[in-house]
Amino acid sequence: MMRQPAPRAIIAVLLLGSVAACATVEDAPRGEQAYAIMPPPPAIGMDYRLSPDDVLRIQVYHEPDLSLEDARVDAQGMVRMPLIGAVPVASLSASEAADVIAGRLGERYLVSPQVSLFVKKAVGRRITLDGEIREPGLYPVEGRLTLSQAIALGKGPTRLADMRQIVVIRRLDGQRQAAMFDLAAIRKGEAADPEILPGDQLIVGLSRAKAILGGALIAAPALAAGFIALDGD
Q1: Predicted TM-score (pTM) of this structure
Q2: Terminal CA-to-CA distance of the chain, rounded, Å?
Q3: 180 and 203 in contact (C-beta within 8 Å)?
Q4: Per-residue model confidence as pLDDT tens digits over 184-228
């Protein structure tokens, strides 16, 4: 009788089925093609869009009474400033939001105001971990993050995971695209550790050999190391 796939594996397949030109895990580009699809960005955070609950530092040059150290974007996407009140900033970049605030201040209160805005806490910077990961879920991204570091956030792969099938789903030019990476090769230094960006979805694949042997591994723990070694991980 054929063993039924684990629930997480079913979820992973369904998720991948929604990706254009990538019906299954095996269809995702890998190797050089994967890295060509998802190259490192020129700089982190340049295109980040402000979200509710983000915490901002807003500095109005030569106007300390108008500057804010911990300005939180509210649920409506507004930030409240002295004199000008609520300013809509959600979905704007930091520089765009600074320009809007400067424009409001220049309308009635200041001559050619200069405003800088820094994102102190970016709640919208999150990734999703799914599939054969010990603790799947949403995780915040603080600074730069590589694939191996992202997997570590979820406490690593399960023992049924296929380390050679780590799929990254990313929105590029308005379309969802996927690429497959080999975590085993990355850990051995045989492949580059790609950068993971906010909004990425990572799915750790299921090892069919490990799934088939799963019952035996549980029944005979002393043999587990030998069976896992046969899978090449």
Answers
A1: 0.52
A2: 27
A3: no
A4: 999 998 988 988 888 889 999 887 665 555 544 444 343 333 333
